[in-house]
Design a protein that fits this description.
By secondary structure, the protein is α/β, with parallel strands linked by helices. Helices cover about 40% and strands about 15% of the residues. It has a seven-stranded mixed beta sheet, with helices on both faces.
Length: about 600
């Protein structure tokens, strides 16, 4: 019984990950009859929450889910499944559980990734007698959405880009290991290309992934002869497109995460019920079908859609069609239990859209035209922006928030590929950020020119989208979409996109069948036709870039685009991270008391 996924997500990452967990951990444990407990650490808790529900585990005779690091009551008559990351801290706790008086009847141990020999040996010595199974299952990434994954590592940003960093090499090594587990989970051995950049991060990571991927397929006896599959992995550094994560986006998901304080995908809002207001929380994920339908739409379309959907429900109940209000919806919910879930989804999105539109009407609308003109280098009529400073000035003179002004200044600088020191100083003074100017200056650490180097700056050529219908305030297309489409059409510039390893044939994103030497899926319908394009962005992806993966997959039905990164960005989190790059690490020291 698979997890109920959003429509169209049956080949999505969450489904594939849950299937792999079922085929490895669950299938093993079925053999050991009886109810079991499941013990998880921080990462595996997130991993399981992303792809299954407690009910799915109960069906598999797992009765209790516990936190590895919390105090747990001994249950000596039960077998325990440990699904943990192979790190010293986790293994120590596991050994302690069985060292003196065993807490459980036996341990079934599953590591997310390769367990270093030293750890494995200490486990064998410490509690080998109690362990019935010890396996590595190769899933050390999080399936965020059906076509989006993260490595759950926002701290990698500082490790990779800060001049004070001492662990850049280890960080890239760890990222490569995680990407290999993604490829293994998808049963792909992709051809690898990286984008030539001023920084060498993409090149280094591509080398590491290629080496580790080859080693992975050599280590597994069953896969020794596995050649390259019809998949391509493109690796790119965040500095390749500084514009997309900074612009004010007007598609629903990107806009909501930018303007509303959504943490851990949880939206908090107030539901007005007559004179009182109740605090509510909603999880924005693929269990909410309406969210899946609306998340990539322009907010103008979402505003039109939701009232229509509510009217639909009212019509079903032959209710009188009054003006839809929050309190009216609340009354409806009480009367119609059958529609409760549908209605609560619509209430959530009615609130969230209203929140987004309030911000839009208050300030964002005034910013968007200038931002779009700076980003595209032309106005909505196609007239070239000859003097970007004239576009920027009205934004600086209007009482916008400091962070909105910083974003506009950055778009101005990006449009020129760097400005003069004198001009930059004036802009910093104008926005009154003399004490926090690093939020602009530190972009240089991402390889983005802030001070112009020479008059001969390369601007990447863009795909012609003049025939595509767009809203005037949403004309910008993230660069990654050009890359996805060029990759599908086999049009990537080989001087810009360096081939680390070839695919078996000229890869054009439309191979009729994925070249799999030994498809190991149990279900025939789990085998996909077509090919996969996997894109990894070092240093974070924005919600608008995530959207591009779905748009391109939708347009080119024969290829699935999967995009991932170390973490997901919002404009605020990115600017905070940029600002923090120049802060030296906090010194740790011991106080040694001298005896008199």
């Amino acid at each position: 019984r698979g997890v109920k996924m959003a429509a169209g997500a049956e080949h999505g990452l969450k489904h594939i990950v849950w299937q792999k967990i079922k085929d490895s951990i669950i299938a093993d444990c079925r053999k050991a009859k009886g109810w079991k407990l499941l013990i998880l650490d921080h990462f595996t808790t997130k991993l399981l929450s992303s792809c299954c529900k407690m009910a799915d585990l109960t069906c598999e005779e797992i009765t209790i889910v516990e936190d590895l690091f919390k105090d747990r009551e001994p249950v000596p008559e039960m077998k325990a499944i440990y699904f943990i990351t192979p790190v010293e801290k986790s293994v120590e706790v596991l050994i302690k559980d069985f060292k003196t008086k065993p807490k459980y009847k036996a341990a079934y141990v599953y590591f997310t990734d390769y367990c270093p020999d030293a750890l494995f040996n200490s486990l064998k010595t410490g509690c080998g007698k109690s362990i019935r199974v010890c396996k590595e299952i190769n899933i050390s990434f999080l399936p965020q959405e059906s076509q989006v994954f993260t490595l759950d590592n926002p701290a990698a940003f500082k490790s990779i880009y800060s001049s004070h960093s001492t662990d850049k090499k280890q960080t890239l090594e760890a990222i490569a290991d995680q990407i290999v587990t993604l490829c293994a989970t998808l049963d792909e051995n992709p051809g690898i290309r990286y984008k030539r950049e001023p920084l060498d991060n993409a090149k280094e990571l591509a080398n590491l992934v290629e080496y580790k991927l080859t080693k992975h397929y050599e280590m597994d006896e069953n896969l020794k002869r596995k050649g390259k599959t019809h998949a391509q992995l493109l690796i790119v550094d965040r500095g390749f497109d500084p514009v997309s994560p900074i612009l004010h986006e007007l598609t629903y998901q990107a806009m909501a995460y930018d303007l509303i304080p959504i943490e851990n995908d949880t939206y908090k809002y107030q539901l007005k019920d007559g004179s009182s207001a109740k605090d509510r929380e909603a999880l924005l994920n693929e269990d909410d079908d309406l969210w899946v339908r609306l998340r990539h739409m322009h907010v103008a379309e979402v505003s039109e859609q939701i009232p229509k959907l509510v009217k639909e429900i009212k019509a079903n109940k032959k209710q009188r069609d009054d003006k839809i209000t929050m309190s009216g919806l609340s009354q409806l919910m009480k009367k119609m239990p059958a529609f409760r879930k549908q209605l609560s989804q619509k209430t959530i999105h009615l609130n969230l859209t209203e929140d987004c539109m309030n911000h839009f009407n208050k300030s964002v609308e005034k910013l968007c035209k200038a931002e779009q003109d700076l980003a595209n280098g032309a106005d909505a009529e196609g007239q070239k922006v000859k003097d970007p400073m004239r576009t920027l000035l009205p934004v600086l003179l209007h009482p916008h928030s400091t962070s909105d002004k910083i974003r506009a200044v950055l778009l101005y600088i990006f449009s020129l590929n760097g400005t003069t020191e004198e001009n930059l100083t004036k802009l910093i003074q104008h926005v009154k950020i003399e004490n926090e100017s690093e939020v602009i200056l530190n972009w240089k650490d991402l390889g983005v020119p802030i001070i112009s180097q020479s008059s001969l700056q390369r601007k990447s050529t863009r795909r012609d989208r003049s025939n595509e219908e767009t809203y005037n305030l949403s004309r910008w297309t993230p660069l990654i979409k050009d890359v996805m489409e060029d990759a599908m059409e086999n049009k990537l510039d080989s001087k810009e996109w360096i081939l680390k390893s070839e695919c078996p044939s000229s890869w054009n994103g439309s191979g009729a069948v994925s070249a799999r030497q030994n498809p190991r899926h149990a279900n025939q319908d789990d085998r996909r036709t077509g090919s996969r394009l996997i894109i990894f962005v070092i240093g974070g992806i924005s919600h608008s870039e995530m959207r591009c993966a779905y748009e391109v997959t939708q347009a080119v039905k024969s290829c699935q685009v999967i995009i991932g990164s170390t973490h997901i960005l919002t404009p605020k989190s990115l600017l905070d991270d940029i600002q923090a790059l120049s802060k030296p690490p906090v010194a740790t020291f011991e106080i040694i008391e001298e005896k008199a």
